[in-house]
Amino acid sequence: MSRPQRMVGEKRAAEILEKTHWGVLSMVDAQGRPYSTAVNAVYSPKEHCLYFHCAREGMRWKCLHDNPFVRYFAVANETIDGSRITTYYESVAVDGRARFLEDEDEVRRTIAFLTERLAPGEIERQPNILGACVKQVAMVRIDIESLSAKVNERQKNG
């Protein structure tokens, strides 16, 4: 790593992950080629995992079925300071194994969790949305095997 002084511990990494709502999911296809895509994902500290949804077909679906090992990368609080020619940020990287949720109750629970984090109150305003989503999307859980983060924070003047 080029800047080891920017590394933070796993507790801080989990805090950064909890406040992000989207990131880049990197996978490998059946031919060994990399494939990355942006996803809305939410972290469950209690289960130490990430959840996201995807279509029941397509490249993401195929890559995850072919090879469950993934990397997820997200950035929070990114600010460019032109006067200092630097970027302040908090970034987090997750390595883990993805699996599709099969149990309908678990799918329903994780859709509700994801929706509440990304669009608070929408399930109450649109009660039929949960049933429609259960039939239309696949829910994926990433069991976190490693979690790391780097931070470049603006220094406060004393």
Can you summarize this structure?
With 158 residues, the chain is an alpha+beta fold.
Describe the model.
- This protein is α+β, with helices and mostly antiparallel strands.
- The chain has helices spanning 10-19, 59-66, 104-118, 122-125, 129-136, and strands spanning 7-8, 22-28, 34-40, 42-44, 49-54, 69-81, 86-100, 138-152.
- The chain contains five helices and eight strands; from the N terminus they run βαββββαββαααβ.
- Strands 1, 2, 3, 4, 5, 6, 7 and 8 form an eight-stranded antiparallel β-sheet that branches.
- The longest helix is centred in the last third of the chain and has 15 residues, at 104-118.
- The radius of gyration is 17 Å and the shape is globular.
The number of strands is: 8
Q: Counting H and I runs of at least 4 residues, what is the number of helices? A: 5
State the separation between the terminal residues, measured CA to CA.
Answer: 30 Å
Tell me the helix content: 25-40%
> Mean pLDDT, rounded to whole units?
88
What's the main sheet like? 8 strands, antiparallel
Which structural class should the secondary elements be placed in? alpha+beta
Whole-angstrom Rg = 17 Å
User: What's the shape?
Assistant: globular
- Element order: H for helix, E for strand: EHEEEEHEEHHHE
Weakly predicted, low-confidence segments = none
In what range is the share of β-strand residues? 35-45%
